[in-house]
Amino acid sequence: MEDQPVTVNILGRSYKLKISPDDEAYLRQAADNINSQAKEYGRHFGYNDFQDLLTMVALGQITELVKMKASLNYKDDGLLEKLANIDKMLDEYLHPTRNSL
């Protein structure tokens, strides 16, 4: 599918993006989450500056991603490598001509 233009609003500012139609719902949910978290930080910490609010949201989200990644790496016991191998085998099975180029 071809990318389509989408506009999301974050803290009163519009951002125009081109994304896959399959990703639009995720993008809109992400924008909603950013807005709600930024407003919560503003209420909780008394921030009014949008840059500060967005920085706090980004820091919180990236911290969660780092923790999740560390948790996966700690517990995987080779699971990620096995999943990568399965993914490769499925790709070769589903797209044999693409993999022979």
How would the blueprint of this fold be written?
Elements: E1 4-10, E2 13-19, H1 24-45, H2 50-75, H3 79-94, H4 96-99
Antiparallel strand pairs: 1-2
Helix pairs in contact: 1-2
Describe the protein's architecture and organization.
The protein is an alpha+beta fold and 101 residues long. Helices cover 67% and strands 14% of the residues. The protein has a two-stranded antiparallel ribbon.
Tags for this model:
flat; 101 residues; alpha+beta
- pLDDT < 50 stretches: none
Distance between the termini: 23 Å
The strand order across the widest sheet is 1-2
Oligomer: single chain
Q: What is the tally of beta strands? A: 2
Helix amount: 55-70%
Average the pLDDT over all residues and give the rounded result.
Answer: 86
Radius of gyration: 19 Å
Query: Roughly what fraction of the amino acids lie in strands?
Result: 5-15%
One letter per element, helices H and strands E, the order comes to: EEHHHH
Structural class call reads alpha+beta
Helix segment tally: 4
Main sheet specs: 2 strands, antiparallel
> Could you say which overall geometry the principal axes of the C-alpha atoms support?
flat
Brief overview, please?
This protein has 101 residues and is α+β, with helices and mostly antiparallel strands.
